[in-house]
What we know:
Layout: H1 5-17, H2 22-28, H3 33-41, H4 47-59
Helix pairs in contact: 1-4, 2-3, 3-4
Amino acid sequence: MPSxxxxxxxxxxxxxxxxxxxxxLAKMYGMTKQEVSNYLTGTKTNPAANQxxxxxxxxxxx
Length: 62
């Protein structure tokens, strides 16, 4: 499975630059804060994590 590190960094930097909290992102996607946090930090790198990162990149046009 390819690394999602570049995508995670893009999303994390975007959130920071735009003042979006992980909690708010989690609410937008109907997920828990912990789940989103695990995806963004790379704690979880399963296919669902990859799909989430790609979805956020597409939705926010990052």
